[in-house]
Design goal:
It is a single chain. It is built from six helices and three strands; from the N terminus they run H-H-E-H-H-E-E-H-H. It has about 120 residues and is mostly helical. A three-stranded antiparallel β-sheet has the order 1-3-2. Strand 2 and strand 3 form a beta hairpin. The two termini are about 35 Å apart.
Length: about 120
Amino acid sequence: MQIKEAEKVFKALGQSLRLKIIALLAEQEFCVCELEEIFGVSQPAISQHLRILKEADLVEEEKIGQWVFYSLKREYLEEFLRDFSSYLISPLEAKKDLEQERARVKQLEQNPKVTCRPLPR
């Protein structure tokens, strides 16, 4: 798990309309015009939201005739959530992208100015 990957996914999911789109796509595929009608939002706005979700690798598209249908990349989302959960419960030493922060935690343990934590027994 890389923080940058997680950031991209969480930013994509960090807007209520995109979360609603994801919830609908978990049920079935939709084209832009259908989502436009469901949400009462303009076609360019729906397309922009779908672009963000696609860039985060959360949705995929399939062209059928003149229409483009969007569906949830369920396996990717499930794998991402599993990986992120594993990342959270892994020890700090295993989090390669937190090396600087890990060093600061160690320094903090030695800093006499930080007195909010009781001393270890």
